[in-house]
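Standup notes
- DV: blocked on the single-chain target, sequence here:
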Amino acid sequence: MEGAPKTGVLYIVATPIGNLGDLSPRATATLKLANTIACEDTRVTGGLLHRFSISTPMIPYHDHNAERMRPQILAKIRGGESVALVSDAGTPLISDPGYKLVKDCVENGISVVPIPGPSAPLAALMAAGLPTDRFYFGGFLPNKTKARRGVLASVKSLDATLVYFESPHRLGATLLDMAETLGERQAAVGREITKLHEEFTRGNLMTLAEFYREAQVRGEVVIVVGAAEESVQDIPIDIDAALIDALKTLSVRDAADAVAKATGASRREVYSRALKVSKPHNG
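- DV (later): unblocked, structure below
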């Protein structure tokens, strides 16, 4: 990026989640050349700006003042100014304020330019060792156990890796809720990602729940949970063959029970498969 920024534009600028070296040259240039920086906490962003010798004026924009500040920001942009939106850390709008501001800009024909960079959910996904081809980011789960389990139950059938933020003092309880609601899945806990005490702990959900049950955890936490390992579509052909053989002498229900027991596969899913493969044998 060279020279003055575009006028009448909203920049969405990702900032470091820990390591200050992750602020990109493009993000640095954008913050220096913007007319105004809209940020959650001027003290937090002020420290970052000081570190990179950026003197751009700041205005607060957060959940508590958004309704009042949004028209003012829009007025600045309509007047030809460039405004850079940042969060306290990471990529704005990802569990941070900003969506309504972007929505209003889009609806008013104002240019919105993303300046990508650090993101805690993506960083955790990168290091978790779990499939990344499909993933679902759910932000923060509810504080209460019943509500939390309800949300988890609603995503149980998703064929995707699940990613959540969590408070360190609820980590053990949340992992237990995940284990008992989602079943035995592989997972990873990322803590203090990109910071001095960065840590990744991997294992199945129940093992992690036990590990963190009474642990004194500090810092920011991201939980990554693998998708259910079995689905009807993923049942291998040898189970089909076993079902066809069992159905020669057993009912659908008994054949499913026998094959599930012999293979360790989910009885519900094997039974569903048995209903499909049994049709030719019943006709």
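- Follow-up: Residues 166 and 198 are 16 Å apart (CA to CA).
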